[in-house]
Amino acid sequence: MTTFHPLQAEQWALKHFGAVDLGDRRRNQRAVRIAQGMASRSGKSIPKLFDRRADVKAAYTFMSRKEATPERLQTPHRNHVRAALGQAGTFLLLEDSSEFIWSRHQETPGLGRTGDLRSPVRQGFTLHTTLAVKWQKPHQQSGQRLPVQVLGILDQEYYLRQPAPTASESDAERRQRENKESALWTRATERIGKGPDDQDVRWVRVCDRGADIEVFMRGVIAQGQGFVVRAAQNRRLLDPNARTRECIGHVFEAARAASPLGSYTIDLRGRKGQKARAAHVEVSVVRAYLWPTPMAGGQGKPRQEGIRVSIVRVAEKPSDDVKEPLEWMLLTDADIETFEEAHEVALQYQARWLVEEFHKGLKTGLGAERLQLEAGQRLKAMISMMSVVATRLLALREDSRERPNDPAQSAGLSAVELQVLSKVLKRQLKTVQDVILALGRLGGHMNRKSDGLPGWQALWEGMNMLQVYVEGYKSLSGK
C-alpha cells in the first residue's frame, strides 16, 4: 500500500509539514507539533489537541502570526503532490467549492457573508479545493465509483463573497459580482500552471456544472491539461468547415439524438431527499465544436475558433418508478469514439464525488465549522492544516477500497497500534479491510454487511480512541 500518507502521526506530520518555512525555526517546529496533534486527535478542539497548557497557548499564538498563511503552511504538502504528478499515468484534478459558515452575533474580521447575503449572523467563506488523485484505467465494466490513489491538495482558495446587492444594482454590476465567483475556476488554472510535457502523463480537471465556462475550458487547454466538465449551458454548436459561421445545433439536443453505444448500471449514492439506488443508463457520444462567445477573445480581440469537444451523454430512461431520471452531459477535450472510452469518462466524473467527501470530512469529521477562533486569518490557517489532515484519512479509505485484501501491516498503522487495536476488539486483523472495519467499530460503526465501509465520523472517532488506548498501553508497559 502507498506510504504517501503514513498513519503514524509523528511520521506523517514530518513528511507533510517538516519542510515548512515560516521565517523562524521555532515557528516551523510549532507547525509540525500542531499537525501531529491534529493527526493523533482528529476532530478535537485546540485545547484538546495538547496536554500542556503552554502548547495550547502557543497554538493560538501561532494561528495569529501573519507568516501562517494557507499557502506557506501547505507548501511542503503541495510540493509532494506536484512531485507525484510528474510520474507516468493519468491524474484527476478533482475540483469543487464548498461554503464554510459560522453563525455569530458580531462581525468577525476576515469573514464574508454566506447563504443569504442580507443575514448579519451567517459569516464565512467559500473554499475552492483541487484534490489530486491517480487514476487507474478500469479493467472491466463497473457502475461503482472506482477507488483512486489520493495524493493530496494541489490548490486551494478562500473566497469572501461580496456584500449584499442593493436595489439599485445595475445589470453590469451584477455580472461583475457573479464573474468574480465564477473566476474561482480560472484562477485555479493560473495557479496550477502548465501541465506535463511528457506524453505519458495526463492531468484531467474534473468539475461539476459550475466550471462550464468557456474561458475556463480554453485556459485548461492552453495549459496542456485535459478536462471533464458537466455541461450547464445548452451551448450552440459550430461547423468548423463552413465558410461562414452557422449554428448547426445545440449541445443537449445533439447528444440526445446520438445513438447509444452501450449501457451499464450506476450505483448512485444517497443524497438529501434521495435514497441510494441503482440506475441503468445508456451512453452516447457526439463530437462537436462549441460556438465561441463574443467575449471569448477579450475586448477588442477577434473571436476565436470553436472548442473541439466530445459530448458524452449518460442517461437513464424515464419511468414511473423514477421521479428524476439521471442525465449527465459531460464535455471532455478527449477524442471519444467507443463505449469503453465514454464509460471511462463517466467513471472519471464519478470520482469527483471524492472532493465533496473531502469537504464533508473537514466539516463533520474535523469540525472546521465548530472552531471558535475570532478572526478570519486564524480560521484560514487552522483549516489549511486541517485540509492536509483530511487527505490522510481519505487516502486510507480509498486504499482500503482499492486493496482490501492486502496484509494488515500495509494499512499504515504501527505494529503497536495494530497490536492494541486487535486486543481491544478481540479480533484478528489479517487484511487492510479488517483494519478499516476495526477502526470504524471503535468509532461506533456497527460493521454490518449492509452498512458498507465506515464513514468519516466513525473513522475519526476510531483513530482518536485508538490513540488513547495506545498511550495507555505505552504508559503501563513503559514503552
UniProtKB/TrEMBL annotation:
SUPFAM superfamilies: Ribonuclease H-like. Pfam families: Dimer_Tnp_Tn5 (PF02281), Tnp_DNA_bind (PF14706). It comes from the Bacteria. Transmembrane segments: none annotated. Residues 10-65 form the Transposase Tn5-like N-terminal domain. Residues 423-474 form the Transposase Tn5 dimerisation domain. PANTHER family: TRANSPOSASE, TRANSPOSASE TN5 DIMERISATION DOMAIN-CONTAINING PROTEIN. This is IS4 family transposase.
